[in-house]
UniProtKB/TrEMBL annotation:
A single MF term (Gene Ontology): FAD binding
Annotated source species: Bradyrhizobium jicamae
InterPro entries documented for this protein: CO_DH_flav_C, CO_DH_flav_C_dom_sf, Diverse_Substr_Oxidored, FAD-bd_PCMH, FAD-bd_PCMH-like_sf, FAD-bd_PCMH_sub1, FAD-bd_PCMH_sub2, Mopterin_DH_FAD-bd
Protein name: Molybdopterin dehydrogenase
UniProt keyword Oxidoreductase present: yes
Keywords for the protein's UniProt record, in alphabetical order: FAD, Flavoprotein, Oxidoreductase
Record domain FAD-binding PCMH-type: where: 1-177
Amino acid sequence: MKASAFDYARATSVAHALELLTAHGERAKVLAGGQSLLPAMNLRLMAPEFIVDIGELAELRGVTVKGDVLTIGALTRHADLLKSPEIAAHAPLLRDAVAHVAHPAIRNRGTIGGSLAQADPASELPACMLALDATIIARGPRGERRIAADEFFAGIYETALAPQELLIAVELPVQPKDSTHYFHEFARRHGDYAIVGLAAQALVRDGRFADLRLGFFAVGDRPLLARSAGELIDVAVTPAVLAEASSALDEELSPLEDQQATPAMRRHLAKVLLMRCVSSLLSRPDLCTG
Ligand code: FAD
């Protein structure tokens, strides 16, 4: 199928893109790498009347580190994240996760901003933003605002972005040298959207979690920062403690049914991931029975 007719403009600066978005209101859609928007248009799931192409805005591309903040421009492509020494050094969780996003051809075009603005609940990068305690920078006609990742994802394909706002960048705290991470997803084939996945960032000191952030995906209508992780912080983790955290997690999940899995299967898989993650981060094979 082909997309319905639309008008098109290539933005020459962020200010120009914002002008176009303001002028065309809800009729307009931003085009970044096009790896989600164009298939949706070709399938006629979406029919924007005006496309604002931001793909040439070099100012929105790249990874920088200043002090203890890692900034990733919205147009940084998945393939760039995979190759970035800054990401490998300061947010290796993100590098591990990006390797699971689609396939090389899609990663060569798709951008981090597009992935976050798309807000697919089965997507890897939104959950990483929760685990890494990211701040999303948005710019609109009234200026810039900073949105905590935990407040950014609002539902299936829904975010806190207003129609006339652009996602400009993502800021991540540089992870301490002794921090550790875990990433795993269950998917039918490598590169498919996950059935259930977990992106976790942790600090382990003297065999206990000093910090633990668990970002689950494909367990509801948006990524989930599991509050039940709190039960595992600063305590000696025993099988009983882990079982309690697992029950608490169960209450937090609201998995959806689709052709890939039932809600019950997703709950089961999320709990398996929790157990494997904790066992791996604490290097305690005795905690893993699944
Ligand atoms: P676009 O398609 O250009 O835009 C996506 C949406 O975000 C649009 O609504 C657009 O208006 C909006 N948008 C983009 N940039 C901005 C911005 N800066 N500010 C405001 N709004 C913006 N994704 C996964 O996460 N995991 C997968 O496993 C996966 N597998 C895929 C497999 C296939 C076969 C395909 C075709 C896609 C797959 N995707 C997957 C989706 C895709 O990889 C990502 O969603 C994509 O990278 C989004 O980035 P983009 O730059 O291409 O966004």
